[in-house]
Amino acid sequence: MMTAAFTSSFSQNLLTSALPSIMKDFSVDAITGQWLTTGYTLVMGVITCISAVLFSKYSVPRLELTALFLFGAGCLGAFLAPTFSVLLVSRIIQACGAGMLTPMMQMSLLHIYPPERQGEAMGLTGVVVGAAPAIAPAAAGILIDSFGWRSIFLTLFVLAVLATIAGSFTLRSLKEPHPEQVELWSLFLYASGFTLFMLGVDQLKKTSFRSMYTYIMFIAGIAVLTLFVRRQKMSVKPILRVELLKYRSMSLGTSIICIAYVLMMASSILVPLYIQTVSGHSATLSGAIMVPGSALIALISPVSGKITDRAGSRIVIIAGLITLAAGCGGYILFTESTGVFPVTLFYMLRSIGIALLITACTTLAVRSLPLSCKPHAMALLNSLRLMAGALFSAVIVLIAEELSSSGSIDIHGVHAAFTVMTATAAAGLILAVWLIPSAETEREAV
């Protein structure tokens, strides 16, 4: 399940580097090409929203193997796609499977591990959630340069087939399936609100902060999602249990993991831009600089989980936010001629902070809840993490573009963006120091 979830998380950020080649091959413009990533994120968000309902309704082997089949079919379709339309449809089919694989792993781990070892369990999820998106850009660059963009989908297809074969022999049921029904009106509201936000983000990337259309999309998205939240509170069988945010541990853990995910995604975009555009180094060196940080996330996440089980979430979250702030803050001091070693070192610091936060915040969010609520908590946390990452990482990158003196991102824009990121991590630290003690007390009471 970890291999399957890693593959799906890996695929989310692989295509960005391939878009120029795909646009050239199919003769489509950037607006059309962007739907390969926008549509994928949108479908993943909708599937993640109903992941708890699906987890309750079907057995683990049936759901996991179905998700892998959809993911693999989408990858094969994309690899063979003769037209852009076929590629887009294949990408959407791929997202239907990918949207279930990471939540399935998380929910299954929460059923397998007892509460006192759930930090260890969330440490395993941190390997997937944290390391895969960081490795993806470098891996995509190597594949595209060596074999072309179709090799990305062939690689993902092979991984999906291997995971399916392994899963056929190893997966077992963890619970009794219960009859559940997906309320279509709620799903429509969530999908519409999420779509409006994604359209706003897409427009933001094209027109920066100057388009009224962007603000209309965001306001409309907020309005629709407000209706969705109200309907969930009134529903007997909601598809997303937003009332779980009344638990301070859940709301605090979700808030801080959203901060961590935004900064992770923004720095994964900005650091390669700094290395290549500002410092003038090659794409290969850019990928090499990011590898040690990605490896640290994979190595530290399980250890972070065990520390969380023994020492509690508070100390790990505070250490993670301090390290993340230091990792981002270092880039404020860099110049065009800063050497490779300090750039790599501070990227590693940032990665250590991410690894600590993803594990400890997820543990804080769900540990106090009854087992029956934990799948719904993971669905809610993943949905908010996905939306926050897509929206606010784009805003931070745009800040870098807006405050750059030249036509492309320069050192002034990089300094501005990392100043915002450091301040955001510092705000998260204040929030953690202030609220975690009461959240931990609430956890003991529950």
Describe the structure.
The protein has 446 residues and is mainly α. It has 17 helices and no strands. Helix 6 packs antiparallel against helix 7 (84-112), helix 12 runs antiparallel to helix 13 (283-311) and helix 16 runs antiparallel to helix 17.
Summarize the structure.
The protein is mainly α and 446 residues long. The chain is built from 17 helices and no strands.
Write the layout of secondary structure elements.
Elements: H1 2-12, H2 19-26, H3 30-33, H4 35-49, H5 51-57, H6 60-80, H7 84-112, H8 118-147, H9 150-170, H10 184-207, H11 212-234, H12 248-278, H13 283-311, H14 313-329, H15 340-366, H16 374-402, H17 411-445
Helix pairs in contact: 1-7, 1-8, 1-9, 4-7, 4-10, 4-16, 5-16, 6-7, 6-9, 7-8, 7-16, 8-12, 8-13, 8-15, 10-11, 10-16, 12-13, 12-15, 12-16, 12-17, 13-14, 13-15, 14-15, 14-17, 16-17
